[in-house]
Amino acid sequence: MTDRVAPLRVDGSPLRVDGSPVRVDGSMSLLVDIMRDAQDPAYAAARQQARSVSGQDGLATRRRTVAGVAVLALLGLATGTAAAELRAGADDAEATRAELAREVRERTAVSEDLAAQVSELREAVEEVRSRRLVRDAAGRRQAATLARVQLAAAETAVIGPGVVVQIDDRPAEADRRASGRAGQLNAGRVQDRDLQVLVNGLWAAGAEAISVNDVRLTARTAIRSAGEAVLIDFKPVSPPYLIRAIGPPGQLEPDFVDSQAGRRIATQAKVNGLAFSVRAQQRLRLPAGGGADLVFAQPVS
Amino acid sequence: MIPFIALLGGIGLGLLFDPSVPEALRPYLPIAVVAALDAVFGGVRAQLDGIFDDKVFVVSFVSNVLVAALVVFMGDQLGVGGQLSTGVVVVLGIRIFSNAAAIRRHVFKA
Fold this sequence. Notes:
Chain A is α+β, with helices and mostly antiparallel strands and 301 residues long. Chain A is 50% helix and 15% strand. The two termini of chain B are 18 Å apart. With 110 residues, chain B is an all-alpha fold. Chain A binds chain B through residues 31, 34-35, 37-40, 42-44, 46-47, 50, 64-65, 68-86, 88, and chain B through 2-3, 6-21, 26, 29-30, 32-33, 36, 42, 45-46, 49, 51-62, 91, 94-96, 98-99, 102.
């Protein structure tokens, strides 16, 4: 490599060896260098060298071209292999996701189907049973007992006067929920504890049947939290929570509002900004709760 | 011209036959493909500038891929694989854009 004197512009300011001007902010020239060296300087250097060498051996040139073609074909093969591999990988991930989504939808449909079958069969059983029991006096007595027990066990839909209690998260939390962002567990959200206190307060005030967001509460229904969601009888329900209770008309609402539970929830709601309201309603319809599994049976005597 | 045809032919064969890649090399495939792309763009620009040299092209192709894979491998060993990989991709991307802009100037002015 020949030695070269650092060139200068006409006005005496320095230039770099390759003729580009020295910048004052030379230490920050990273991006400039990247963009300038995008063209590999080796191309220009090779061309300089080729110019200074006059004429080449024809055989050497041909051999060089053949070697070059072979090497490039090989490199192309490697690149194509890599590209094919990456494309296959991306396809696999997408295919797996689509398969899982399809399976989830399928199973949900099957589960809903089975649930519909279950309620159909229950109705059929009920019908056969009542037809059989009505035939004689003993049967009719049993039927009456059965009706009372079913009512108490929340196995039948019921209609009656009562109260509707509505409770919802703090407006900021409700907005966050609506926009799809994950919320935080804090006092501004309604938790299972609050619903339990409300429901127990209603029972204590004389309610005869209660449902939360149209899930009927039976003697075995649990109100629990799992992460951010509240599960009633293992079914997830989302706010706002509507608690409907059927009980003595004109008494249930004042008894509940004045009760310890009612006052406690009202204070808590005011302090934490929860939306809370209680109002009486003349006619409420509550759905039936999940039926009990038959474990033990005995012929009617 | 011939070198590019050879390269494209090789790529076509690779896509067609899809030979299996050893497991150890799988993580470096993406960066290798981006580095190869950078070398190809540099070669096309050199061709349009009239200073293309096949030896320089082969060397730049191989060295680009090797250096990029080596940097990412080193990053993995040091525990900064993701960040170094991002850095390499950024630099290669800037170079690809620069060369593409020069190619565009050639194509639309000539």
